[in-house]
Write a structure and sequence with these properties.
It contains 8 helices and 11 strands. The chain is an alpha+beta fold. It folds into 2 domains: 4-162, 60s Ribosomal Protein L30, Chain: A, CATH 3.30.1330.130; 174-218, no CATH class. Strands 2-1-3-4-5 form a 5-stranded mixed β-sheet. Strands 6-7 form a two-stranded antiparallel sheet. It binds zinc ion (ZN) (2 copies).
Amino acid sequence: MVDRSLIEKARDLHGHICPFLILGLRASEIALKKLGIEKVGERESVREDILAIIECNNCFADGVQVATGCTFGNNCLIYLDVGKNALTLVKRSDWEGVRVYIDGEKIREKYFKKEALELFEKVIVKKEGNSKDIEKLREMWMEIGYNMSNISEDEFKIEKIKLKGIERAPIFESLRCEKCGELVMKTKIVSINGKAVCLSCLGECEAVVGRGILSNFKIPYVR
Ligand SMILES: [Zn+2]
Ligand SMILES: [Zn+2]
């Protein structure tokens, strides 16, 4: 069962409480227990000893970051752009891991009220609905979320899984872009007519956006 203080921390990070945020917390709790480890602490986060692999950039992913301590910034979080609600937790020491997957469709049928789904469709999908609808949806979403905090392990697909090794985050030297003058990770500099230019000045890079990873993403700064 996910405790209330962890839910509050997740709310702080994510901005709201919703079903898939709590499912991310619960999936993490299950994976940590199965691996017999605690949330990533000072030592593990510095050495990237434990990795969390997520498969979608959604509410679930924030739950995972709060509960496991594996984050985008400490390089203990690996993002596979495959669009599934799943978490794999793995120890670097032996590359033994646990993958926890949740079937969103089954969860919706079983735990979501029809009224909540209709409101979601109206407010979020169609961008209709007034402030009263939004408030009502927020309340219902929170209520469903709290109900998910003690959802049974049986609702998840849980597998012990062996992983291939993943490199630790390398440290690269920085080079200065000859166009904008800013320091850039060496691997992100391109040579154009003998000049070292950053991707930002070139106008294109890969980016994680709502739909996942986009290559050839146009740098959006208007200057
Ligand atoms: Zn959310
Ligand atoms: Zn530049």
